[in-house]
């Protein structure tokens, strides 16, 4: 692993230590093997890899939403198993991939956004009020507060999902492919909104993505995942400009090139 | 707070409300029959021309008006001289009470078990599936006759016994939906927001199950009304002199060859109500399917 030298490192916000996870079944599938990553306070760490590499499983384990078979997950030094659901909620919040399934179709936007406040017992009226304010802050007018998700476009829904993640002032945001279900034209708007909120709120962001362009735009450091293992970690500049692993090089070369088309190779597929 | 990003014009903002999906005529015909029966039951004392219990042996077996009877007894009188129309109107109360009461109890039982099985999985699921298998292996009518014989008969007991046999569809549907919904991202988001499992089930998951469960409820209600009629016909349901459509058929069975209308009228009432409820349920299914399965 390659880390920048110099200034003292900020404390760790979220850390996975030797995490492994298997999905049960007749042929148990090992989704994660000995994964260790550390998200420092105030930074954006991207976890990048192709579909099926275990990124989403890792994000759910880090959020405490899935059990882990082996290893530990620490949130500001405390084992997340020792934190209650509310304590976890106060420190970290997710933004999921699909805004069409991450918002309950039966609730209004204000109710959806206010959920983390309502869950910790805040009075409904004031929670809904704050939710309406935050909807405005993420670029949706207060007129949207009483609407249900079905009346919104994908980008608008994702803005609401971001508002929900921000309302309880968490320190950590875990974004699982926050733009991959959106139109290209909307992706940049959502990424800019995330960047802006990260700066204003001094958030630590774990960004799960398969999009190298998003990594370059958003992240300070990057961890590359393949088949449930971390194969390379380092600053975005180092990893993207001087990748050490063949797989990382391949991921980078898979970015569509408008001039030369796709020039992806999969040497391991041809292996005997 | 100030808007830090311009008010979005994102990708096509679609603020129009989603339209109500079109339903076939079944929904309206079935709904009208059900509504009419409910109104009959509620306003029975106002609508019935006579007391459903008043006997008059001098006026027994008067034919209905369409078979040459009089307008004093539009649907005729039974073997004890009781007004058939009045008994029919009061009998709707029994059918609806059994229908609604039974589905209420069986829904609580079936949905509770289905949610527990679907959400917890593992041994809880295995145990609930075992209970389901046991239930499905019981012949409803025989077991209901045995229980009625053992425990006696009253309206409350009838509902309990029928509910004991009619929770399986609620369980199957709610279990399948719970399995699907427990990993839905909005449920994960609710967990990440800090809500308890109980809150998540009641506020996040159950509201998303109402469509399919209402359909199950209507179909099971029709089933319960049929079973009540059958048990009453066998003398194991509602006791005379109370008015129940099944009981009316049972009391008229001795006259079936000579005064067939005495059996046909309550029989037609049962058929109409059950068909109406079924049509209503099927109509709702169409509406929910058109709306995208919710």
UniProtKB/TrEMBL annotation, chain A:
Q: Does the keyword Transport apply?
A: yes
GO terms assigned for molecular function = ATP binding; ATP hydrolysis activity
Which stretches make up the ABC transporter domain? 14-252
Q: Which GO terms describe its biological process?
A: transmembrane transport
Q: Which InterPro entries match?
A: AAA+_ATPase, ABC_transp_ATP-bind, ABC_transporter-like_ATP-bd, ABC_transporter-like_CS, P-loop_NTPase
List keywords of the entry alphabetically.
Answer: ATP-binding, Nucleotide-binding, Transport
Q: Which Gene3D superfamilies match?
A: P-loop containing nucleotide triphosphate hydrolases
Recorded hits in Pfam families, A to Z, give: ABC_tran (PF00005)
PANTHER family documented for this protein: D,D-DIPEPTIDE TRANSPORT ATP-BINDING PROTEIN DDPF-RELATED (PTHR43776:SF7), TRANSPORT ATP-BINDING PROTEIN (PTHR43776)
Protein family according to the UniProt entry: Belongs to the ABC transporter superfamily.
Q: What is this protein called?
A: ABC transporter domain-containing protein
Give the species this sequence originates from: Sinorhizobium medicae
């Amino acid at each position: 692993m390659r880390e920048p030298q110099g200034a003292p490192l900020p404390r760790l916000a979220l850390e996975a230590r030797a995490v492994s996870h298997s999905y049960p079944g007749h042929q148990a599938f090992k989704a994660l093997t000995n994964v260790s990553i550390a998200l420092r306070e105030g930074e954006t760490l991207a976890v990048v890899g192709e579909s099926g590499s275990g990124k989403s499983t890792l994000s759910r384990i880090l959020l405490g939403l899935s059990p882990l078979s082996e290893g530990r997950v620490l949130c500001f030094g405390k084992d997340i198993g020792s934190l209650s659901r509310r304590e976890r909620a106060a420190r970290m919040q997710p933004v999921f991939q699909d805004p069409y399934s991450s918002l309950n179709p039966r609730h209004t936007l204000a109710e959806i956004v206010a959920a983390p406040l309502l869950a910790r017992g805040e009075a409904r009226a004031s929670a809904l009020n704050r939710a309406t304010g935050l909807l405005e802050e993420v670029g949706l007018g207060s007129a949207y507060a009483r609407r249900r998700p079905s009346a919104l476009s994908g980008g608008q829904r994702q803005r609401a999902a971001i508002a929900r993640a921000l309302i309880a002032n968490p320190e950590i945001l875990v974004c699982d492919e926050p733009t991959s279900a959106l139109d290209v034209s909307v992706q940049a708007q959502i990424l800019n909104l995330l960047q802006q909120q990260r700066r204003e709120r001094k958030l630590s962001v774990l960004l799960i993505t398969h999009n190298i362009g998003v990594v370059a735009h958003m992240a300070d450091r990057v961890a590359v995942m393949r088949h449930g293992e971390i194969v390379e970690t380092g600053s975005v500049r180092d990893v993207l400009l001087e990748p050490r692993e063949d797989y990382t090089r391949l991921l980078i070369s898979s970015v569509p090139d408008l001039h030369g088309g796709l020039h992806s190779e999969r040497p391991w597929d041809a292996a005997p | 707070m100030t808007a830090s990003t311009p008010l979005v014009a994102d990708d096509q903002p679609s603020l129009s409300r989603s339209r109500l999906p079109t339903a076939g005529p079944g929904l309206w015909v079935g709904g009208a029959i059900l509504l009419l029966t409910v109104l009959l039951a509620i306003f029975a004392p106002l609508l019935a021309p006579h007391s459903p219990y008043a006997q008059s042996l001098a006026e027994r077996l008067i034919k209905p008006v369409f078979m040459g009877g009089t307008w004093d007894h539009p649907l005729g009188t039974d073997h004890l001289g009781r007004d058939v129309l009045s008994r029919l109107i009061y009998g709707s109360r029994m059918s609806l009470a059994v229908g609604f009461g039974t589905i209420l109890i069986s829904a609580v039982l079936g949905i509770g078990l289905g949610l527990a099985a679907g959400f917890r999985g593992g041994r809880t699921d295995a145990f609930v599936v075992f209970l389901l298998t046991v239930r499905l292996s019981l012949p409803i009518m025989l077991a209901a006759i045995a229980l009625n014989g053992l425990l006696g008969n009253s309206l409350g007991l009838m509902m309990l016994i029928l509910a004991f046999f009619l929770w399986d569809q609620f369980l199957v549907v709610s279990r399948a939906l719970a399995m699907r919904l427990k990993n839905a991202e909005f449920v994960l988001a609710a967990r990440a927001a800090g809500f308890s499992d109980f809150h998540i089930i009641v506020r996040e998951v159950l509201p998303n199950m109402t469509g399919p469960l209402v359909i199950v409820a209507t179909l099971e209600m029709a089933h319960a009304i049929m079973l009540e009629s059958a048990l009453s016909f066998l003398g194991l349901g509602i006791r005379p002199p109370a008015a129940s459509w099944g009981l009316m058929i049972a009391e008229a069975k001795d006259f079936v060859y000579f005064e067939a209308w005495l059996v046909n009228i309550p029989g037609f009432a049962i058929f109409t109500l059950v068909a109406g409820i079924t049509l209503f349920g099927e109509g709702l299914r169409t509406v929910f399917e058109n709306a995208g399965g919710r």
